[in-house]
Structures are given as structure tokens and as C-alpha cells.
């Protein structure tokens, strides 16, 4: 028997195994392996979470500096950029940042060295120390993340959302308010997260569905806009039926999600109201910082100043400016879904009109992805009542929105302008509007005895059943066609 020797020089008691006889060459083995069919990739369905009786991974961690098991994923910088709460800070730094904020405020962080990075959820709780930290690990490939090994998620966003939706939370507190940094907000929304000290509130200039609108003075000399308007959303938001607090997810707010398209030079040239950024204070408010338009809404101007100051020439100029805004939105495939005189704002000279209030806006891509998580989130928070008398019939019946449905609403806006702020279908109850539209009823066209305020013939032609108010969306003129019509005058 052939005995081998150990590394220490002693006799090994085990014989060397005899290698099996080869029937193929190395090259043939390689080719067989390369051409062999790959096993199908199976995706584990997400199961409902439930409190775990004995799950060591859920235990609060004392430190994230200890090395991970071999094979764990390394620091994923691309993922970090897309996670708005992520900070590359220590446990102690996380606690210091969370300390002034209410229970439910959280952030995601990392610790350890770059090659062996550990993720964690740091959460403000009612525990004696005031904080709890949960280790988030990855599988060997980095394709899934988990706090509990039996519940794995493709990314950190999915993990956070799933634990937010759990009716019986397994964490020490609900995950409610993300802790933001200006750098991360800029990365995700290409916009500015302002501090509480940057603006001084002046007076209330309006009332929204979820809070007031204030005029403000900028306290920061480095900022270009001295005067702005702050549209406030009071926190916490609660479900209307259950009263349960709704977690803050910034992607659900259209005016925040679309910030990259609502604050740039091109948008300004196309009469889009400039959205400058937000202020955010967990559990207190989100304030959307927008361009201040001292002239107020077009609807208020039509009702108060009316024909004494605003003539047909002014109305045609406003129509051209709103056409420009709609062309811009169409270029970026954005549907406003709330076109009305109340959402058109005027400057102090009453010469310039801008389209505002993007609270219901959505992109075509989001509309087409109805089954995706992002699409479901869009309608979750700030779900307004539909403005029935301004909305196209196909949108009321089937919730189908398109650039053609936008043109129906634009027709109602034109009618508002030349009727000087009257309510469309004034004598018809809201619940009967759709039925009457199908019967052929349309807004009665305004008549004026003042030659300077008379409805022009080209607008008269647009406000017909075979034009902007056609039941067939494909028969309505496009915004490009309407824009050309108004540019002639």
C-alpha cells in the first residue's frame, strides 16, 4: 500500500485515492459543460410576514463592525444612490441624527469595510435607549436582502415597503418617516432639500386639501428666489377609513416625483410653474417650495377683475401660454390630469400665465405600468376627488387618461376663460354630467356684448362636439394643432 506523508512529516494513515479512468478529454469536458442547458431561475414568491418566534437575524445588533460571513455582497454604490435614506455612517452617528426626531423615523446605513459591508436599518423607537438597529444581510450573490432569512427581497426599497405594510409589525416601531439628507435628495430628485431656516412664512395665500399655502421670504442669501410660495402637506397623513398613519414615501407625491421636469430653464420657458424643492420635517410637514405668482389664480382674476382688465387679447395670450406648457408636458410624456383655470397662475402684471398644481400628474410610463409597485403607490396618498366637470368622459368611465383626454379638459379651460369664471354645466348635478354628455349636452358657449371680450370664431369652432369635446378621443385635435391655431392670432 502506498502511504503518503503528512505536512508535519508523519505517516498518513489514509491511502491516496485512485483517480477514475478518463473516458473523455479535458477539452470535451469543457465543451459539454459550456453547452449544457442552464437550470431555470426560480423566484420565491413573497410570503406575508409574521412575527418570528425565534429568528436570530431579527435581533437588535450591538455593532456592525464585526466581519460578515464569507461570500456576502460588497458595498453596492449604485444601490446606495437610489436609496434616499442611505448614509455611510456608524451606529453612533445614526443615533445622533435620529435623536431629535419622533418615533418611527428611520434611515438605512452601512458599516465595516467596503469589501465586506453590512447594511442596517436604524429606527427611532420607544425602547429605553430610544433606538433599535436591525442587521440587513444579503445572500451570496447580492441579489436579495433580508432581516429575517425566510423573507427575502430584491432591493432595500422593497424590504422597507413590505415591513411598512405589515399589520402586526415585527420591529420595535413602525417605519414611518425617512430621514433625508440634501445630498441624497439631490441624487434622487435632482432638486433641493431646504432647511427649516431657509424660509420665513409671511401669510396664508391659499388652502389645499392637506394643508395651507403660504407666501414666504427666503432667509438664505445664497438662494436665487427671494420670494416663494410654500404648499404645505400636514403630517402625519392618515387613512380615511382606518385612521392608521400612512408612511411617508416621497415617490407617491407627484409634485416631488416629477421635480426634475418642473424646475429647469426649458420648463420655465414653456410656462410651467417652477417647483424649487421641498422642506421636510418628520411627523410635522412636507412643504413644496414653488415659484410665487403674485397675480393669483386665473380663476380668481376672471371673477374679480374680469372684463374691466382682462380682454380677449389677454385670454388668447393665456391660451398660447398654456398650449406651450402642454406641449412641454407631452414632450416628456406627462399627463397633468387637472387642467383648469384654478390651476393657472398669473404674475403681478397679469401678462404671463403658468400651469401649476401637478398633484395628480403622472407619466405615460407610470400609467402603462399599472401592475408595478410604483404605479400602485402613485394613487395611494393625496388621492383627490376627480373634478368631474373638467374630466373627459372616457376618464370618468374607464379611468383612461391620455393626451386626448387632456384636450377635453383644455376645452373646458377655454370655456372658463371666455365665460369669465363661470362653473361648467352649472345647471347639471355632478352625478348627472356624464349621462348628459352622452346625450350630446355641452357647455353653453358664452356670449358677450363687449366687442373686446367676445368669443373669437376659432375658439368657437374648437368648443364643439366634433372638436375638443368629441366623444371619440381620436377625433379631438392634438395640442400641436391647437397651438398652431392660437399662434395665428
TrEMBL record:
CDD domains: SH2. Residues 199-489 form the Protein kinase domain. Residues 1-24, 46-72 are annotated as: Disordered. Its EC number is 2.7.10.2. Residues 84-179 form the SH2 domain. It comes from the Eukaryota. It catalyses: L-tyrosyl-[protein] + ATP = O-phospho-L-tyrosyl-[protein] + ADP + H(+). It is an enzyme of class 2 (transferase). InterPro entries: Kinase-like_dom_sf (IPR011009), Non-receptor_tyrosine_kinases (IPR050198), Prot_kinase_dom (IPR000719), Protein_kinase_ATP_BS (IPR017441), Ser-Thr/Tyr_kinase_cat_dom (IPR001245), SH2 (IPR000980), SH2_dom_sf (IPR036860), Tyr_kinase_AS (IPR008266). Keywords: ATP-binding, Kinase, Nucleotide-binding, SH2 domain, Transferase, Tyrosine-protein kinase. ATP binds at residue 231. It holds the Pfam family SH2. Belongs to the protein kinase superfamily. Tyr protein kinase family. This is Tyrosine-protein kinase.
Amino acid at each position: 500500500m502506498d502511504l503518503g506523508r503528512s505536512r508535519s512529516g508523519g505517516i498518513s494513515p489514509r491511502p491516496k485515492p485512485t483517480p477514475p479512468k478518463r473516458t473523455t478529454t479535458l477539452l470535451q469536458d469543457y465543451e459539454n459543460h459550456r453547452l449544457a442547458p442552464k437550470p431555470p431561475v426560480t423566484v420565491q414568491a413573497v410570503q406575508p410576514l409574521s412575527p418570528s418566534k425565534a429568528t436570530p437575524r431579527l435581533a437588535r445588533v450591538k455593532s456592525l463592525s464585526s466581519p460578515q460571513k464569507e461570500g456576502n455582497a460588497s458595498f453596492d454604490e449604485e444601490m446606495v444612490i437610489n436609496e434616499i435614506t442611505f448614509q455611510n455612517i456608524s451606529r453612533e452617528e445614526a443615533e445622533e441624527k435620529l435623536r431629535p426626531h419622533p418615533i418611527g423615523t428611520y434611515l438605512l446605513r452601512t458599516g465595516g469595510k467596503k469589501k465586506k459591508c453590512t447594511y442596517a436599518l436604524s429606527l427611532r423607537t420607544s425602547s429605553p435607549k430610544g433606538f433599535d438597529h436591525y442587521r440587513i444581510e444579503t445572500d451570496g450573490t447580492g441579489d436579495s436582502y433580508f432581516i429575517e432569512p425566510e423573507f427575502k427581497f430584491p432591493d432595500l426599497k422593497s424590504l422597507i415597503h413590505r415591513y411598512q405594510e405589515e399589520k402586526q409589525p415585527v420591529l420595535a416601531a413602525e417605519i414611518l418617516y425617512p430621514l433625508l439628507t440634501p445630498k441624497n435628495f439631490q441624487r434622487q430628485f435632482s432638486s433641493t432639500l431646504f432647511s427649516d431656516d431657509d424660509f420665513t412664512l409671511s401669510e396664508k395665500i391659499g388652502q389645499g386639501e392637506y394643508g395651507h399655502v403660504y407666501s414666504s421670504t427666503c432667509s438664505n442669501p445664497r438662494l436665487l428666489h427671494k420670494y416663494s410660495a410654500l404648499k404645505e402637506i400636514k403630517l402625519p397623513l392618515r387613512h380615511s377609513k382606518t385612521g392608521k398613519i400612512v408612511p411617508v414615501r416621497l415617490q407617491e407625491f407627484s409634485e416631488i416625483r416629477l421635480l426634475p421636469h418642473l424646475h429647469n430653464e426649458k420648463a420655465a420657458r414653456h410656462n410651467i410653474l417652477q417647483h424649487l424643492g421641498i422642506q421636510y420635517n418628520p411627523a410635522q410637514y412636507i412643504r413644496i417650495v414653488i415659484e410665487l405668482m403674485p397675480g393669483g389664480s386665473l380663476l380668481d382674476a376672471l371673477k374679480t377683475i374680469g372684463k374691466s382688465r382682462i380682454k380677449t387679447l389677454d385670454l388668447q395670450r393665456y391660451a398660447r401660454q398654456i398650449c406651450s406648457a402642454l406641449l412641454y408636458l407631452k414632450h416628456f410624456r406627462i399627463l397633468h390630469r387637472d387642467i383648469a383655470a384654478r390651476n393657472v397662475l398669473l404674475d403681478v402684471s397679469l401678462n404671463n400665465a403658468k400651469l401649476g398644481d401637478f398633484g395628480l400628474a403622472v407619466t405615460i410610463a407610470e400609467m402603462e405600468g399599472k401592475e408595478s409597485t410604483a404605479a400602485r403607490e402613485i394613487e395611494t396618498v393625496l388621492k383627490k376627488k376627480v373634478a368631474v366637470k373638467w374630466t373627459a368622459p372616457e376618464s370618468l368611465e374607464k379611468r383612461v387618461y391620455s393626451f386626448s383626454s387632456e384636450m377635453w379638459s383644455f376645452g373646458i379651460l377655454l370655456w372658463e376663460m371666455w365665460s369669465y369664471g363661470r362653473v361648467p354645466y352649472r345647471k347639471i348635478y355632478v352625478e348627472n354630467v356624464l349621462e348628459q354628455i352622452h346625450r350630446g349636452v355641452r357647455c353653453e358657449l358664452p356670449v358677450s356684448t363687449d366687442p373686446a371680450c367676445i368669443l373669437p370664431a376659432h375658439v368657437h369652432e374648437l368648443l364643439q362636439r366634433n372638436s375638443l369635446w368629441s366623444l371619440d378621443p381620436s377625433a379631438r385635435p392634438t395640442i400641436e394643432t391647437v397651438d398652431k391655431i392660437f399662434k395665428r392670432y
